[in-house]
Amino acid sequence: MDDSANVIDYTRNYERQVVLLTGATGSLGGCLLYKLALRLPTKKIYALCRRSIGDAIRKWESTMPQQIEDILDSGKVEFITGDLSKPGLGLDTAVCERMRNEVTAVINTAANISLVQDLEESLQNNCQTAIALLQTASTFKKVQLFIHFSSLAVNSFLSGGLVEERLYPAPDEIPNPEGDLAGLPGADPSKLPPDDRYTWPYAQAKHLAERLLLRQPSPIPVLIIRPSAIGPATAEPFPLYGPDSAIPIHQMLLSFTLTDQDLERMAMHHDFEEVPVDLVANCCLLHLANRTTGVVHCSSELYVTRTGAEVLSTVRDCITPVELAEVFRKQRAAAAFMWQNKYRLDQIDQTPTWTVECKRSDYQKQLTGPLALVPAQHGPQQHLRRRIRKMYRVMLDGGQ
């Protein structure tokens, strides 16, 4: 099949799609909203807003100022208010009934990506809400696929080596069914004890969500997408789209002073696992068109693979010593100090190394059209240099 036939095939699929999108005001959710509304012939999008619709629009006006009017004018988006942590998702009864008869796919990007929140809070935000959404989606008459965004961090308890695109059991040798129940809506999250084998409580909560979502038999088909750390967009909604607060690697970079010692610690065999947000969105939407189920990875293998030392070397080329000294006199986000202290960056060269399997998305590299993984004229190194300059410029000019 030629490229034009492939494009026609996956875009036509969206002419029948009615998508419920959660987390639409976040970085990834906003990118998906843009693509569903303006780049694909999607029949309809229900965009779930946790607070008021006005608050959501004001946030999009800040994050996508040149695109939000076109999204609103597309006529495809129905904004609805709800809260995944409330009974019935906090949805209006009439709205829920319409969705029950219309929705064909659910994409769940809602999450609290904080790496400093405790396990109980992360379970409530990143596990219980996902299960509540699945339970509601299971009542939709036309739903064909439930897509949930997880994270490659869920496998951080592994000792290294190949990370496969499959569900891994909990690291405990003895099953803890009572602890697993802590991930169900309304349950007491304190029943699951923290496990330091995970890099963060966030990872432990996300892993439990995976295990509960993929329990057999599943009421509806489920796809778990595990992206690497998500970085700024290559092209859409616009180049470098994505707030710094939603880009974990920026906080990590702000933890390094970029000395020769830092570069030496970032051992050459440690890959810099990050993918642009618009690549992640395209990967997701192509899998939706393909009705993929199970687990898929979205890693740097689909974009460009760099080592941590290579990235830090580029940072040092882009930032003068005077600018760097000024940055470290500024107040930095708590997450930057967390990377530096709690997760022992002085021992980063001793951390395990993983090879991330990504073969279930390999076919996507050949596709063109609105969901091409990487724009044809994109230069990864130039993109990296531009985003580094922007990141440090924000710190120098605006602080945090």
Entry keywords:
400 residues, alpha/beta, Rossmann fold, seven-stranded parallel beta sheet, two-stranded parallel ribbon, 15 helices, disordered N terminus
Q: What proportion of the residues form beta strands (DSSP E)?
A: 5-15%
Q: What is the correct CATH architecture?
A: 3-Layer(aba) Sandwich
The CATH homologous superfamily corresponds to NAD(P)-binding Rossmann-like Domain
Report the sheet with the most strands, covering strand number, pairing sense and barrel closure: 7 strands, parallel
- The number of helical elements comes to 15
Task: Catalogue the unreliable spans.
Answer: 1-5, 334-345
Within the CATH hierarchy, at the fold level, what is the topology? Rossmann fold
Helix content: 25-40%
Q: How many domains is the backbone divided into?
A: 1
What does this structure look like?
Keywords: Lipid biosynthesis, Lipid metabolism, NADP, Oxidoreductase. Catalyzes the reduction of fatty acyl-CoA to fatty alcohols. Helix 6 (119-137) links the parallel strand 4 and strand 5. The chain has a single domain (3-243, 274-305, 354-376), classed as 3-Layer(aba) Sandwich (Rossmann fold). The strands form three sheets. A seven-stranded parallel sheet has the order 3-2-1-4-5-7-10, with helices on both faces. The protein has a two-stranded parallel ribbon with strand order 6-11. A two-stranded parallel ribbon has the order 8-9. The model is unreliable at 1-5 and 334-345 (pLDDT under 50). The longest helix has 19 residues, at 119-137. The chain is globular, with a radius of gyration of 21 Å. It is built from 15 helices and eleven strands. With 400 residues, the protein is an alpha/beta fold. 42% of the residues are buried.
